[in-house]
Each structure stands twice: as C-alpha cells, then as structure tokens.
Amino acid sequence: MCSGRDKREETRGKRVVVIALGLCAACLMLSSAVAWAETVRDPTRPPAAVEPVRAAPQPPARNYILQSTRVSEERRSAVINGRVVVEGDQIGGARVLGIEQARVRLRDARGEFSLALAVPKVTRPAQAREYEYLETTSTEASQ
C-alpha cells in the first residue's frame, strides 16, 4: 500500500512533469510565433528585394553647332563650331558624312545624327516694292 508520503511525492512528480511539459510547450509556441512573425511582411515596409532605380549614365552631350553651309558644284563645305569641314573630315570625334543645303550629317560612337541651320521657314517670297524715282534736273539739284 501506498503511504501518504508516497502519494505526495507521486503528486509532486506529476506536477513537475506537467510544469516541464508546459514550459516545453510554451517554448515551442514562442519559437513558432517568432518564426511566423519573421515570415509575415510588414505592409508599410518597402520591399527589400527591390533596389533603388538609378538613372542610366548619360553619354556626353553632342556639342556641335552648325554655323553655315556652302554647296556648289565644285565643293561642299560647312562651318561647325567655327571650323570649316568637308565631307569625310573628323570634328570632335564625329565624321562628316554629308553636307546639304542647311544640313550636315555626322556619325560618332553613338550613331548617325544631323545638324541643321536655324533658318526661318519662308512661306512666301518677299515682293519687290516699286518706287517712283523722281528725276532731277541739274538746276533743281543745284538749288
């Protein structure tokens, strides 16, 4: 038969086991809650995988100014940035491909491009004005 002392020890042993199991369960729940919380995304936090968008590096600007063109049967030339060039010449890293009236085609490392003179578009030619010229005689001119 079991004595009262044995029952108390048995009860105490059961309590220790229950407390130990409870602590283990609490630890498991706590660790799973932490793991679950790490997987839940904060809706106000920006995504970490998306890197900030950086502007693409801009190639250096083409600083060419067409100042004039000359197109004749004998020669085609242009003035670009104050320098006279003909077809085939190089200027500032670009090759002159063609010269036309008020336009020059060039090619550089970025490709082919054109320069144009800033010429206003003429919608109708100017009309010659007729003037009446008064003839003066030598006596009128001397007065």
Describe it.
- β1 and β2 form a beta hairpin.
- A 4-stranded antiparallel beta sheet has the order 4-5-6-7, with no helix packed on it.
- 29% of the residues lie in helices and 25% in strands.
- It is an alpha+beta fold and 143 residues long.
- Mean pLDDT is 78; it is low at 139-143.
- Among the domains are: 1-39; 66-116, no CATH class.
- It is rod-shaped and about 145 Å long.
Write a brief structural summary.
With 143 residues, the protein is of the alpha+beta class. It contains 2 helices and 7 strands. Strand 5 and strand 6 form a beta hairpin.
Major beta sheet, specifics? 4 strands, antiparallel
Q: Structural class, from secondary structure content?
A: alpha+beta
Low-confidence stretches: 139-143
Shape: rod-shaped
Query: SSE order in H/E notation?
Result: HEEEEEEEH
Taking Cα atoms only, what radius of gyration do you get, to the nearest Å?
47 Å
Please tally the helical runs, counting DSSP H or I stretches of 4 or more residues: 2
Q: Approximately what portion of the residues adopt beta-strand conformation?
A: 25-35%
Q: Please tally the β strands and state the result.
A: 7
Name the average pLDDT. 78
| CA-CA gap between termini | 164 Å
**Largest sheet: spatial strand order:** 4-5-6-7
